């Protein structure tokens, strides 16, 4: 008997019949809902490419059964920009060259947003690097990523968007 | 991943009843279980999702001064709880030194205690492993042993318990609350993880169908809040398991140690705590001689299980460093790199800021 789950993804309700309970949240986002911005890297919680926000908290969507998230509010990379207006974290990544090939970038951006909302980023590069260690960048854009977090944090603090 | 039946019971009683099914297992945060299922090391036939069971997500200060933490409290939430972190700073530091921010947001207290060893031979279904397949042997004995035990091991198994969190919990004498088909019981954390012996590879002492529902830190555990550290040596500064780690906590009276708590991670199949080592420090001043004697006492009986004799030296040095830092006082703020011996801030090294 298929499991029926309901997710709020980027503000939109999605009712999904799961024929197979093995589906992870990552699989459902990509293959059932068609949101392929969230990437499958290692699929074992080690690389961070699959990072999304669940009820505002960053987690690895590859290590969560979709069935466990029934009723949850999910934010993916597709849910950040307002039309053509980039989210402050997206804009900061572009301005600081916080990527090269771009494969890890959706996960980096979602992780950075989660970190800023946790309110522990300060502007200390060492704390930011530690807090971002769950996101691996094969191109090693770490310097730009750290700068992007500092920049976005400052901007969101100024505009109080971190409260939204 | 094998196919399984997914159940999400509404109550603890329902969950425990469901766990009678053969091959049933509890699912909490999923960060360890799903990973092991993906590589075929665990193959449960029924998954009982306990992540939403009511009443398991609270942190409470009890009337007698003890603290109770529910099994579904996530690692990050416990470490960032201001009251908890102030009273048990080494526990918070240990939690924040483990895994990544994403994993700490998902991983639960109960799951951390029940997590499997990270022995690479346990994780490889093609290797002999007495833990995974009793009687098949231990491929680690002649293998790569950097992350393996140097104390309390046997030829049955040389794996270590990988938890950071459990190390200060053991030092503080935490009590694990267990529920199962036979009712509820309290279990001292020292009795949760069994060492291997001549015939058994070790593991946990929970019976089939039993579940951890919470954990209590006894009233006296908060008395170590002013002199507590957790230090961890690892292959990289973040997101790596311990090669060796130490929880060191002191209750000072003036310049004398009234009581000491000391436990090691990364060296045995359980957090390694020995009363003799703590007794060496009680009544002493935290000087080099007493601290070195405590390190020797804690490591008494250590022997390499392979090419890992260096871990014995590392452990003794790290115990001494952690005790000196604990004596200097708990850092006023959580270090930028929790549990790291590397830091850019002199105060965190126990040095005055103007050095």
TrEMBL record, chain A:
Gene3D superfamilies, A to Z: 3.10.20.30, [2Fe-2S]-binding domain
Keyword Iron recorded: yes
Residue ranges occupied by any 2Fe-2S ferredoxin-type domain in the UniProt entry: 3-80
One Gene Ontology MF term: oxidoreductase activity, acting on the aldehyde or oxo group of donors
Top-level taxon of origin: Bacteria
InterPro entries from the UniProt entry: 2Fe-2S-bd, 2Fe-2S-bd_dom_sf, 2Fe-2S_ferredoxin-like_sf, 2Fe-2S_ferredoxin-type, 2Fe2S_fd_BS, Aldehyde_Oxdr_Iron-Sulfur, Beta-grasp_dom_sf
Key words of the record: 2Fe-2S, Iron, Iron-sulfur, Metal-binding, Oxidoreductase
The protein's name: (2Fe-2S)-binding protein
Species in which this protein is naturally found: Pseudooceanicola sediminis
From TrEMBL, chain B:
Gene3D superfamilies hit by this protein: 3.30.465.10, CO dehydrogenase flavoprotein, C-terminal domain, Uridine Diphospho-n-acetylenolpyruvylglucosamine Reductase, domain 2
Domain spans labelled FAD-binding PCMH-type: 1-222
Matches recorded under InterPro entries: CO_DH_flav_C (IPR005107), CO_DH_flav_C_dom_sf (IPR036683), Diverse_Substr_Oxidored (IPR051312), FAD-bd_PCMH (IPR016166), FAD-bd_PCMH-like_sf (IPR036318), FAD-bd_PCMH_sub1 (IPR016167), FAD-bd_PCMH_sub2 (IPR016169), Mopterin_DH_FAD-bd (IPR002346)
Highest taxon, organism lineage: Bacteria
Keywords: FAD, Flavoprotein
SUPFAM superfamilies xref list: CO dehydrogenase flavoprotein C-terminal domain-like, FAD-binding/transporter-associated domain-like
Listed GO MF terms: FAD binding; oxidoreductase activity
UniProt-recorded name of the protein: Xanthine dehydrogenase family protein subunit M
Organism: Pseudooceanicola sediminis
């Amino acid at each position: 008997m298929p499991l029926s789950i309901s997710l709020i993804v980027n503000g939109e309700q999605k009712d999904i019949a799961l024929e197979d309970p093995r589906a992870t949240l990552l699989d459902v986002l990509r293959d059932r809902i068609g949101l392929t911005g969230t990437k499958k890297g290692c699929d074992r919680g080690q690389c961070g490419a699959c990072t999304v926000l669940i009820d505002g908290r960053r987690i690895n969507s590859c290590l969560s059964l979709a069935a466990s998230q029934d009723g949850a509010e999910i934010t993916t990379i597709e849910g950040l920009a307002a039309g053509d207006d980039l989210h402050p974290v997206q804009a900061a990544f572009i301005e600081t060259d916080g990527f090269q090939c771009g494969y890890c970038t959706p996960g980096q951006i979602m992780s950075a947003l989660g970190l800023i909302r946790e309110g522990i980023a300060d502007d200390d590069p060492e704390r930011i690097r530690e807090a971002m260690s769950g996101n691996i960048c094969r191109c090693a854009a770490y310097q730009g990523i750290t700068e992007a977090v500092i920049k976005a944090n400052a901007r969101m603090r100024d505009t109080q968007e971190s409260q939204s | 991943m094998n196919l399984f039946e997914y159940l999400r019971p509404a109550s603890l009683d329902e969950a425990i009843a469901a766990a009678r099914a053969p091959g049933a297992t509890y699912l909490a945060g999923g960060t360890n279980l799903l990973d092991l299922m993906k590589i075929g090391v665990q193959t449960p036939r029924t998954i009982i999702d306990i992540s939403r069971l009511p009443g398991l997500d609270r942190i409470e200060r009890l009337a007698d001064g003890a603290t109770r933490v529910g099994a579904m409290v996530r690692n990050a939430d416990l470490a960032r709880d201001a009251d908890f972190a102030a009273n048990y700073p080494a526990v918070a530091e240990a939690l924040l030194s483990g895994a990544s921010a994403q994993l700490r947001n998902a991983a639960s207290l109960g799951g951390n205690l029940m997590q499997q060893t990270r022995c690479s031979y346990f994780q490889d279904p093609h290797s002999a492993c007495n833990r995974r397949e009793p009687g098949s042997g231990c491929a680690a004995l002649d293998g790569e042993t950097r992350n393996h035990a140097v104390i309390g091991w046997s030829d049955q198994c040389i794996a270590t318990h990988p938890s950071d969190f459990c190390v200060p919990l053991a030092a503080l004498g935490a009590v694990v609350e267990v529920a199962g088909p036979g009712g509820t019981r309290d279990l001292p954390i020292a009795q949760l993880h069994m060492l291997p012996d001549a015939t058994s590879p070790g593991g946990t002492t929970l019976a089939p169908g039993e579940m951890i529902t919470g954990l209590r830190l006894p009233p006296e555990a908060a008395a170590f809040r002013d002199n507590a550290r957790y230090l961890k040596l690892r292959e990289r500064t973040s997101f790596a398991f311990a090669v060796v780690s130490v929880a060191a906590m002191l209750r000072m009276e003036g310049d004398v140690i009234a009581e000491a708590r000391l436990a090691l991670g990364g060296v045995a199949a359980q957090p390694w705590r020995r009363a003799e080592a703590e007794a060496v420090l009680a009544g002493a001043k935290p000087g080099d001689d007493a601290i070195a004697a405590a390190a020797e006492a804690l490591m008494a009986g250590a022997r390499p299980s392979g090419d890992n004799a260096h871990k014995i030296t590392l452990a003794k040095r790290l115990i001494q460093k952690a005790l000196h830092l604990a004596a200097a006082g708990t850092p006023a703020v959580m270090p930028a790199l929790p549990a790291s011996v590397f830091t850019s801030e002199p105060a965190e090294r126990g040095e005055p800021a103007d050095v």
